[in-house]
Design a protein that fits this description.
Layout lengths: L1 H19 L11 H14 L2 H10 L15 H13 L19 H21 L5 E11 L6 H11 L3 E4 L5 H15 L19 E12 L10 E6 L5 E18 L4 E7 L6 E7 L5 H11 L2 H7 L5 E11 L1 E8 H8 L23 E2 L10 E2 L3 E8 L3 E5 L1
Parallel strand pairs: 1-2, 10-11
Antiparallel strand pairs: 1-3, 3-13, 4-5, 5-6, 5-8, 6-7, 9-12, 12-13
C-alpha cells in the first residue's frame, strides 16, 4: 500500500505542474486521491496500451510487493492463488509456489486494486477523529452490458457497485439523480457537477468520485484574534482580508535549497496534518512562490517534512480566511500527460468494463465503456479555511 501512496503523491505533483505551467499565478486546488481512485476504476477495465498509458502517468507501474513486518494481504492473496494452481504435494511436477511478482498487466491490475481497497478501508477506519467521506459510484445505462468480473472488482476493492439508470429515454432524470448523489456526498457544497447537456442519450456509463473532509485544528485560531490586514496578491497588488492569528508551539523548518519555511499544522489528535510552505520575503514574492512550485516533488516533500528539517518552535502563525472554488477540464491535461488512447474511439480498449465492440460516445469524466470515447472530463473542488476547522470538498 505504501507504494500506492507514493504513486498517488507523484501523480499529484505531476498534475499540479501540468495545470500550473500555463498560468503560474493561478490558485490551484484538487484532491489527488479522488482522481487516482477514479482513474484506478478506469484502469480496472482498461486493456493493452490504454492500460499502459494510465499506469505510466499515474505511476501505477511503480507498484511493488512490499516487504513489511506485518503480512501483506495482497501478497497473501497472490500466494493463495499460486498455491491453488500448483499440483498437490507428492504428485509429479509439484514445486514450491513461486513468490508472485508484478510481471503481467493482469498481476499489476490485481495488485493495484487490492492496494486501493486497503487504502480506502484504512481511511474509513480512522475517520472517527474527523469527518471524511470517500464515495465512488458508477451509473450504467440499463441496457448496456457490463463484465461480471469488472462489477466484482469495483465492489470488492472500490466499495461501490453500478447503479442502473435510463440514459437513453430519461437523460435529464438520470443527470439530476447523479447530481443529487454528488451533492449529498459533499454535504451540499457541489450542487451541479454535471450541467445540462453534459450527459446525453448516448451516455452508457458515468463514473463519479466524491470526497468530503472536515477536521478541527489541534490548535485552533481564536475568533477574537481575527483582524483586517493586508494580504499580498503579487508584488504590486494587495488586498485587505480577514487574517487569523495565533502563537504556539509548532513543528517548522527552513529549506535552504528553495529559501522557504515549512510549517506543520496538525488536525485534532494529530493523526492528520496540513503542511504549509512559505517562500522568504523578497522584492518579488510571486517569483519566489513560482520558484518553490517548480521545485516541489514527492521525494522533496518527504525529505522537507522529515525531522531532519523540522523541529518544534514557538511560532506566530497568520492565515487569511478564504474559499477556493474551481473546476478543471481534464481532457487536454491528461492527454498532455500521456493518457491519450481512452480519448480516441478507434484506440480505446476498455473491454474489461464491457465487451461491447461498438464505439459509443460518452460524456462526463470517466464515463466510458468498451471501445468508448471519453469526450469530457471534469473535476470540481472547494476549500474553506476558517478559525476552528479546515474543510475540503474535492
Amino acid at each position: 500500500m505504501e507504494s500506492l501512496i507514493a504513486a498517488n503523491s507523484k501523480f499529484c505533483f505531476d498534475l499540479f505542474q501540468e495545470i500550473s505551467k500555463n498560468d503560474g499565478a493561478k490558485n490551484i486546488f484538487f484532491c489527488p486521491l479522488s482522481l487516482s481512485a477514479a482513474l484506478g476504476m478506469v484502469r480496472l477495465g482498461a486493456r493493452s496500451e490504454s492500460a499502459h498509458q494510465i499506469d505510466r502517468v499515474l505511476h501505477f507501474d511503480e507498484l511493488s510487493q512490499e516487504k513489511t513486518k506485518t503480512p501483506d494481504p495482497c501478497l497473501k492473496y497472490k500466494e493463495q492463488e499460486a498455491l491453488a494452481d500448483s499440483p498437490p504435494e507428492g504428485q509429479k511436477g509439484a514445486t514450491k509456489p513461486p513468490t508472485p511478482q508484478v510481471e503481467s498487466s493482469k498481476d499489476g491490475n490485481e495488485l493495484l486494486s487490492c492496494y486501493f481497497g486497503q487504502l480506502l478501508s484504512k481511511l474509513d477506519r480512522i475517520k472517527s477523529d474527523y469527518t471524511l467521506s470517500i464515495a465512488n459510484r458508477l451509473y450504467g445505462e440499463q441496457e448496456f452490458p457490463i463484465c461480471p468480473e469488472y462489477l466484482d472488482g469495483v465492489i470488492q476493492f472500490y466499495h461501490t457497485t453500478i447503479e442502473s439508470v435510463d440514459f437513453r429515454k430519461d437523460t435529464e432524470k438520470s443527470r439530476q439523480k447523479i447530481n443529487f448523489w454528488v451533492e449529498s456526498q459533499s454535504q451540499g457544497k457541489i450542487k451541479e457537477l454535471f450541467s445540462k447537456n453534459t450527459i446525453n442519450n448516448g451516455t452508457v456509463l458515468v463514473l463519479v468520485n466524491a470526497v468530503y473532509f472536515k477536521a478541527k485544528w489541534e490548535k485552533y485560531f481564536e475568533v477574537g484574534n481575527t483582524v483586517d490586514a493586508p494580504f499580498s496578491l503579487s508584488e504590486n497588488e494587495k488586498k485587505t482580508v480577514k487574517m487569523m492569528n495565533q502563537k504556539g508551539m509548532f513543528k517548522m523548518g527552513f529549506i535552504e535549497e528553495v529559501n522557504a519555511q515549512i510549517l506543520e499544522m496538525p488536525y485534532t489528535k494529530g493523526k492528520l496534518s496540513m503542511f504549509v510552505l512559505l517562500p522568504s520575503p523578497s522584492a518579488d514574492n510571486l517569483k519566489g512562490l513560482q520558484e518553490l512550485e517548480r521545485n516541489i516533488t514527492y521525494e522533496k516533500i518527504v525529505a522537507w517534512s522529515s525531522p531532519e528539517y523540522m523541529s518544534e518552535k514557538r511560532v506566530a502563525v497568520s492565515f487569511p480566511q478564504f474559499t477556493l472554488e474551481d473546476s478543471y477540464d481534464l481532457n487536454s491535461i491528461l492527454q498532455d500527460m500521456g493518457i491519450t488512447d481512452v480519448f480516441d474511439g478507434k484506440k480505446a480498449d476498455l473491454t474489461g468494463i464491457s465487451p461491447n465492440p461498438n464505439t459509443t460516445k460518452t460524456k462526463p469524466f470517466s464515463s466510458m465503456a468498451g471501445s468508448a470515447l471519453l469526450e469530457k472530463g471534469t473535476v470540481s473542488s472547494t476549500w474553506e479555511l476558517e478559525e476552528n476547522s479546515n474543510v475540503i470538498f474535492p
